[in-house]
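Re: [help] complex structure
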Amino acid sequence: MSAVTWTLQSKDGEARSGWLDTPHGRIATPAFMPVGTRAAVKAVDSHDLSGVGAEIVLANTYHLMLRPGSSRIAALGGLHQFMAWDGPILTDSGGFQIFSLEPVIEESGARFRSVYDGSTVELTPEGAVRIQEELAPDIAMALDVCVGLPAPADLVEAELERTLRWAERCLRAHTKSDQALFGIVQGGVDPDLRAKSAAQTAALGFPGFGIGGLSVGEGREERRLALEASFAELPEGKPRYVMGLGDTDGLLEAIARGADMFDCVLPTRLARHGKVLTRGGDFSLRNAESESDDRPIDENCVCHTCRTHSRGYLRHLVRVKELSAHRLLTIHNLKYTLDLVGAARQAIESGTFSDFVRGVAA
RNA sequence: GUGGCCGUAGCUCAGCCCGGUUAGAGCACCUGGUUGUGGUCCAGGAAGUCGCGGGUUCGAAUCCCGUCGGUCACC
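Output below.
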């Protein structure tokens, strides 16, 4: 029995709602995971995260192995105690960060330069697992090789195969019984390669699967086909996590195809740049139109920010770069995204998911 | 009162000595971008009677005269 299991609750078309059971409790899916790269979701704390209804958060192996180091976090009681978050935590393996650092990829592992001090760092599949066992999240991710798109098919296939070999090594290295290790599907935007990667990753027996290498600038149709090809080869009874996806259309499209989990920096990053998300469309509080607007960001939003502050005030905070602007907009954008996914779940359960999608698009 | 320096975009200034496309920069402002995070960054846009008046010249932010305002020094 895996430390993490997923149970289907209802289906509406290919869209599915379910429960993810972890050592730190049960959460509803589809689920959005706020990104707390360095054991902190930027600008907010764990109390704020509870307040917006987050159930699971993400942290990052790559950043935490460099600072403060996984052994230090282990000595401080593991990630949950370290960041004062009692709910489930997932750590990304660092594959995506490494990919953006122009690494040297060899069969043994990846070599790259630390963004903190420029020193050369090596991360192997076994190392990524060991570090994540020390960090002690509920879910660890296998170390994968993420290829930048567009890329030639033979390169995509070669790295997909390397990712499979690394996945096996991660599984062999993983020993922590109260932690799940998820595999990662690659294959670019080629449906055949996606299917191949998904089928072979599934065959390795992971308790859950990340869909990696997407949300990197590919077209909407390309992504849809890549997701469909991936999901077709993954077992029905295990969770599917689309990595790095978090815009409104992308989330709904992926949920419609059968995705269960997501993470994305978009809501939190946009918040720090003054942009807010609403059902009626996104807009920037930097824009002059909010100057003397006494309405909240979203009349229908029940987040702390919308219950308390006007657009005019928030625009002022953004313009003068008050630190509270980061926190207040982050709270709103996370609430928006979590509510969107939550509403999608309800729609699936009531069999009205496609109507719901049309309503959001309108 | 005398002498020096200064006045160019909302702000801080460059250009003036040696006249020559459409007067520039940074910041601010306006708009767009950001997807398994370095609180950024990138791209575009709008914006100036060159204090004012006169003169010289084919041509003046630039040279000359006057004038207004600011500032410093001396009396």
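The mean pLDDT of chain A is 94.
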